[in-house]
Amino acid sequence: MDGQIAEEDWKIGVDIGGTFMDFCALEARSGRMASLKVLTTPDDPGAELQTGLALLTEREGLSPEAVSRFVHGTTVGINTVIQRKGAKLALFTNAGFEDVIELARLRMPDMYSLFCHRPDPLVPRDMIFGLPVRMRADGRRTDAPGDVTEALAKARAAGADGVIVALLHSWRDPSQEAEIRAEIEAQAPDLFVFTSAEVWPVIREYERFSTAILNGYVHPCVSGYLSALEQRLEAQGVPARPMLTKSNGGLMTAGEGRRDCVSMLLSGTASGVIGANWLARQAGESRILTLDIGGTSADFALIIDGAVQFGSDELVGEFPLHIPSVSVSSIGIGGGSIASVDEHGVLRVGPESAGSVPGPACYGRGGTAATVTDAMAVCGWLGHSEMAYGQLDMQVELAREAVGALAARLERGLEETAQAIVDIAVSEMFVEVEKLSSRAGVDLRDFALMPFGGGGPMLGAFLARELGMPRVIAPRRPGVVSALGGLVADLKGDFIRTVFADLDADALPRLSAHFRALAEEGRAWLAAQGHDGAVDLRLSADMRYTGQSYEIEVALDPDWLTDLPAIETAFHEAHRQIYDFDDREGRIELVNLRLSALGAGPKPDLTEPARVAPESVRQVQVHIGGWRPVPLHERTGLAAGTAFDGPAIVAQEDTTFAIPAGASARVDDRLNIHLDFAE
Amino acid sequence: MFDKMTLQVLANHARAAAENMAHTLHRTAHSAFVKETQDFTVMLMDRAGDTFAVPTELGATWYPGLTYGRGIDLVEEPYRPGDVAFTNDPYSGHVATHAPDTHLWKPVFSDDEIVAWTGGHIHNTDMGGAVPASLSRSLTEIQQEGIRFPPMKLVREGVFDEQILRIMSTNVRKPALNIGDIKALVGALNTGERKVHAMIERFGRQGFVSGVAALKDQAEAQARAILAEIPDGDYRFADYADEDSDEANPCRLNLTLKIRGDEAVLDFTGSDPQLASSLNVPSGGDPRHTILLVGVYYILYTLNPRILLNSGLTRPFTCIAPEGTVLNPVEPAAVGMRSLTCARLRSVIFGAFVQAVPDRMPAAPAGNNCIVNVMTRDERSQKTVIAAVNPVVGGGGGMPHRDGTNGSGADAAYLKNTPIEITETEVPVEFVKYGLAQDSGGAGRWRGGLATEMAFRVFAPDSRITARNRDRSAFRPWGTGGGRAAGLADMVVNPDTPDARRMGSKDTAILQPGDVLMVRSAGGGGRGNPMQREPWRVARDVARGYVSEAAAQRDYGVALSDGEVDEAETARLRAAMPAPDEGFDYGPERMRYEARWTEAAYDRLTEILAGLPIHWRFFAKTEIFRRIEGAGPEAVDRAFEATCTRFPDLPRPVLPAEAAE
C-alpha cells in the first residue's frame, strides 16, 4: 500500500465560484482525472477545501502526501472589492492632484442618463493627503521631499490600515515615492505601504494610482486568507506549496500573492479561458468563443489562433483594472435572469436575477419569478434527471406556474411564452458577442463556440445558431473548466517599463538596457516562485503613431532591439491588421516595453477513460414548435465515436446540453461533443 | 404586424448591428476627433430615412431622432446598390448641423428595392474656411466656415468619386485625416448593410420591415407613456448663454413647454434673433429636428432607462422655432459653434421639465463643456506644438436621490480627459492643479456636483490658449426646489498674484513664460432645501474639502467644532434661517440682469425683432442693448425709438396686430 502511494503524483486545481468550490484532480502517472464540486461555506472560508480533499481521498484514493502541485483560484480579492470590505487606506499624493482618483478618466457609462455617476473611490477624499512635492515630466524635482509627519498623524488618527504613495511621473523615477515610503515605514512600522511604481510602473497617473489602491485595498483580506490556506494544507499533510491563479492566466506562489494581490483579482474568469483553450487545443481547435453561463451572468472570451486575448481595462466590480488580464466580456444574463412584461406587452429578460437564492422557481427553493432556466424546463429541455450532483430536485410544475403567470398577462400559450423568454435571453447575449467580435475584428463564422459553466451548455447551441457559428464543442466536464485551467497553467509574471520615446536610432541603446533589466527581473521572479525549469521570456512593446492616444502592443524579438526597421515594420503591420491602415511615413512613439516571464506548468495529455457507463437513451417530450419526442442521452454513456442528430438532450450531473434540430453531434476520443450545424 | 412579445429580440439584433458599426468606425478612423473625443454617430434607418437604432456605448448622444429623409431626397439621381451619398451643408436638407460634421448614408437593397439605410456622421478635424478647425465664435457667415457639399453621391456602386475627394483635399487643412475618417465611416456603413441583410435573413423581409416599424412604435409608446404621467400644463423657462457674439450681450433661449395628455409642444418663441456669430443652431424649422430634442432624449432616458432610442420617440413632440431666430437661422448665418448654444438649449429643456416633474428631475448641470487647446513652442525640440490639454467640464446637478456627480456627469458624461503625465511629456506645460473646486457645487438637500479647476504653466513666449465652449461665467447653473445656484465658471491668468488677470467670458488668452492659466468650470446646481441636508453629510463634505467650514455655516446652517457637528449651534443656526423659496435659484447675477430685462421686456423685444426683416434683427438687438436705460417693456420701447432715431433707415417693425389685418 505504502509503495503504491509513493508511486502516485497528484496535481490538484481548485476554483471557487458563487455556489460551489470546484476540484479537478489529475493523477499524473496514470493520467487519471477526477472532478467534483463541494458547496461553498461562506461562514468558514476554506472549510470546503478540507471537505473536497476528504472526498477525493475517499472516492479516488488520493493521498494528501502525494500532492505535488496545488493550484487555487480564489474570489476573496474581488469579493472584497465588490462588497467594499477592504482596508482603510490613506493616499499620499501631490498637492493639487488629490482628486485624480475621483475624476478618473471622466467619461462614464450610461451616458444618456442625467443620473450617471462614477463609483465612490476606494479612498475617500478625506483620506487623501497632498504633499508639497513634484517631479516634472523629465524627472527633475521642483521641490525637496516633503515631511510626511503631519499627513501620517492625520491618517493614523483616522484609522488608516495602510498607505498608498502615488506621485506624478513615478513611472520615470520611483525614488521620490520610495523615499516617502521609507519615511512612513520608519515612523509607522505597523502600517503597510505600497507605492504606485512598485505595483505597476506604467505612465498614466489614474491607471497607475488606482492599480496601487486596489492592491492595498484587498491586501489584508487576501493575505489573511492565504495564511489560513497554507495552514490548512499543511494540516492536511499536503507538501506542495500552494500556487494561485492570476488575472493574466498564469500562476504565482501564495507567498507572492500576499503582496501582489492585485494580480489575482480576475483569476476565476481568466483560468476558465485558459482551461477552455487547453481543451480546445486538445480537440484540435484554435479559434474559439468561450461561453460561461452562471446564475446571474454570462462571460465570453475569444481565443484567436490558439492565443488567449489580453486587455488592460477589465472591470473589477465597478473599477477598471489596468494590469494585463485575460480579456473577458460579461453580461448580466444567466440561468437565473428573471423575465417580465412591460406596460406595452413587450417581454424582457433581466437584468434582475433570482441568483442562486432563491433561484429559479423550478429549484423549489421559494423562487416564484419566471427565469430562463424555468423557461427551458417548461419547454422540456430540463427536468428529466438529477441536477447539480443530486443537490437539486427539479420541479417543472413550479416552472410552469411561474411562466404561466406571464403567459396569462400576455394572453399567449405557455410554451410559446417560454420559448420567447429563451429567444430574448439568447438575443441579449447576441448583442454582447457581436460587440466583442467587432472590437476584435473577427468573423465568428470561423470560430467554434465552447460552452461551459452550469448554464453554458443549456443555451450555447442556441446562441451559436443565432450568431451563425457553424460549430459547438461541449467539453466532458463543463463544470470544472476554471479548476482545470489552473491545473494546466504556467507560472507567469508581467513586467513593464515606460520608455516614452520616439522610435529612432537614439532610442535603441535605452531599449536594450530596459530589456536587460526586465529580463533580470523576470528571471528573478521565476526563481522566487521556485521554478527551476526552462525560462520563456516574451518581449513586447506598446507603440503608436505620434499624435495617437492609444497604443497597440506588438510582440518583439529581442534581436530586433538592434534592428530599427524590424521594429518599425512589426508596428506598421500590427497597426494595419487591427485598424485596417498604416502610415509608413508616420513617426512612431514607443510608450512601454513589456516582458512576460513564463515557467511552463505540467502539460498532461488527458485521455478520458475509455470505460463509459452503458449507453442510456430514452425519449422525453420537448416543445419545439409543438411537443415531440426527443432522445435524452446520459453523458456517462456516450462513448467516443458516438454520433447522433439533434434535437437531442445530453444530461450529466452538473449540466444539461440542449442540442437543437439541425445540428449533428459526434463524440471525440476525449469525450467532447462536437455539434455541426448544417449550412 | 411584428409579434410584440418578441420585439426585444429584434431590438437586440438592431442594437448589435449599430454597436458593430460604431466599433468598426472607432477602430478604423484616423483622427483624434473620432477616436478619442468620439464625436461621431452611426445609425440604422428605415426606408424613409428615419433612425431606428443607435449604439449606446460609443459616439455622441445627439442623433437617435435624426431623419435623413430630406438629405436622401435631395440627391437627384436614383440610388443603386453600393452607392453612398453625403453632405456637410447645414443648409441643404438640415441633416448636417455644422460644416465639420460630414454625414453619409447608404441604401440597403432587398430584391431591387430599398428596405433600409445605414448612416452616420464624423466630425472632420478641419473643413477649411477662415480659421483652423473651421470653428470660431467670431465668424458671421457660413461661407467662412469651410467648404460645403450639398447632398450628392460620394460613392457610386462601390467606387469613390475621386473628383469630390480632390475638391475636398484641396480645400481643407488636414486632408488625410478627413479622407481616412470618411473611408472608415464608409466601412462602418458597409458593416451595417451586411448586418441588415443578416436581419432580413433572420426575420424575413416582411418581418424586418414590420419589425422596424414596431420598434419605432414601441419607442413612441414609451415616450407617450412618460408624457401621459406628466401633469398637463404650460411650463415656461428661459436661460442665457453669457455672450451672443463679440458684442457680448447675453443670448437668451426661451421655452414654453406645453404638455397635453401624451403629447408635448416645445415653443421656443422668445429666443434671441439669429446672431452675427457662429452660435446659431440650424434646425431648419423641422418640428422634430433632433438637435432641438437632445435634452428631451436625456429626460426620457432618465425617466425610463429601458426606452428604445430611435426616431419613434420624437413623434409626440412638436417644436416651434420661428424662422430668423437663433434656433432656426436662415442662410448665410454661421453655425460652427452651435454646441455652446446646444448646451444652453438642454438646460432650458431641463428647466421646463423640472417644473413639470419636480420630483424626478435633477438641478442644472454645469453646462459648459469647455475644450482647452494650447499652441506653444517646445524649447527642447524647437518646434511649435498644438495640443488639446483637457476638457474642463463641471458637475451634474443635485439629483432626487444623491449629490450631483463631481467634475462631469449629466449631459457631459461622454467627454474623456488626457492623463497629466501624457500631456506633460508631450507638451511643454506644467500642471499646477487638476481637481475639484471647493464650494462650487450649489448647496442643497442634495448638493450639486463640484466644478473642475485646472491650472497650468507655460514656458514659451506668446503661447496661445483657446478654451472653446466656455460659458456660465455670467449666469449660474440654477438650483431647484430650494437648492441653490452653483458657482460660476472663470478663467484667470496668474491667479492669486498681484498681476492676476480675469478673462471673464473670453475663450482665448495669450501667455508669456512662467504665466499660469487657471480655467474653472461652473458647478452643478443644488436640489432641495440645504437646511434639510443631514449635518453629518455637511461635516463629511467639509472633511473632504468639498465645502468650506464657512460655507457649511452660511449655506447649510451647520456649525462644526473640530470637524464634528455642533448639534446645538446647528439647531440654532437652522432655526434662524428663513425657509428658501421652493422654486428656482438663479443666483444674484441673473436676478440683477432680469431686474431690467424682465419677461415683459423680453416679450416686447421679441415682438419688435420678429417684426423686422431678418437681416436687421441682430443689429437692432445690439443697438437696443447699447441704449437701454431703466427696466421693463417701456425701457425697450425707449431704446428702440432711440435706435430708430439714430438709424432712420431701420424699417418699422410689422407688429403681430398689424400682420393679422
List keywords for this structure.
heterodimer, A: 679 residues, alpha+beta, Dna Ligase, domain 1, nine-stranded mixed sheet, six-stranded mixed sheet, 17 helices, 32% helix, 27% strand, disordered N terminus, B: 661 residues, 4 domains, seven-stranded antiparallel sheet, 22 strands, 20% strand, globular, Hydantoinase_A (chain A), Hydant_A_N (chain A)
Please tally the helical runs of chain B, counting DSSP H or I stretches of 4 or more residues.
Answer: 17
What portion of residues of chain A is helical?
Answer: 25-40%
Beta-strand percentage range of chain B? 15-25%
The total strand number of chain B stands at 22
How many runs of DSSP E, i.e. beta strands of chain A? 33
Taken together, the total number of domains of chain B comes to 4
- Oligomerization status of the protein chains: heterodimer
Structural class of chain A: alpha+beta
Unreliable stretches of chain A: 1-5
